[in-house]
Amino acid sequence: MAPTLDATIKGENANSYCDLAFATAYANNQAWGDTWVALGADAQSIALIGATKWLETLPFQGSRCTATQALQWPRSGATCDGVTSDCVGIPRQIKTAEVELAFQLSQNPNAIIGPPGGGGTAAGTYVKRNKLGDLEQEFAEYSSADASCDSCGDPAVISAFPWLEDWLGCWLSGTFGSSKILLRVRS
User: Which of 48, 63, 95, 111 is the most buried (most CB within 10 A)?
Assistant: First the structure.
């Protein structure tokens, strides 16, 4: 059965902030655009729906426009870089973050929750950054003292993709990243 992508603004059954046309137009201007197009509409829709589910776990400024809308966006009362959100549309920043995250999830569906059985780093840490030249790897520790991410302070999607916080910027309510940075450098 083919997935049903619903990007209806304020829709009661909406499951995506953007439609396939927007996602494809955006992807066509990215280095990974050919890979995205090769996925096909069904896989793209599944990736967009999955990305939206993860973005829905984030706290955003403002408030929902209606009590019946399925998704957090559109919102009213949020201001970012001089732009005030309204109930007519969803900011481009939110939609492009969805497409970027959808592409990442299409390439690694376990990127956020990880495969069963652990991931090869110390409990309570995750790989924040890899660098190929001079083989440098940076780890960060979840903000919670507890080793699982079930109760850590940062949303799982931000822990897995820290760049999302910068990408979504001032549309988010609050800041994350209270984790400690641990460096491991090969000498």
Answer: 48
Q: Which two tokens stand for residue 19?
A: 């439609």
**What is each CA distance from 88 to 4, 14, 16, 76, in whole angstroms?**
23, 15, 15, 9
pLDDT, tens digit (0-9, with 9 covering 90-100), for 20-42: 999 999 999 999 999 999 999 99
Sorted by where each begins, the domain ranges of the chain are 20-107, 125-185
DSSP 8-state assignment for residue 89: -
Centroid of chain to Cα 86: 22
Provide the whole-model pTM.
0.75
Buried/exposed code over 115-141 (b: 16+ C-beta within 10 A; e: otherwise)? eeeeeeeeebbbebeeeeeeeeeebbb
pLDDT digits 0-9 by tens, 121-177: 444 556 666 666 666 667 666 554 445 544 356 789 998 999 999 989 999 987 765
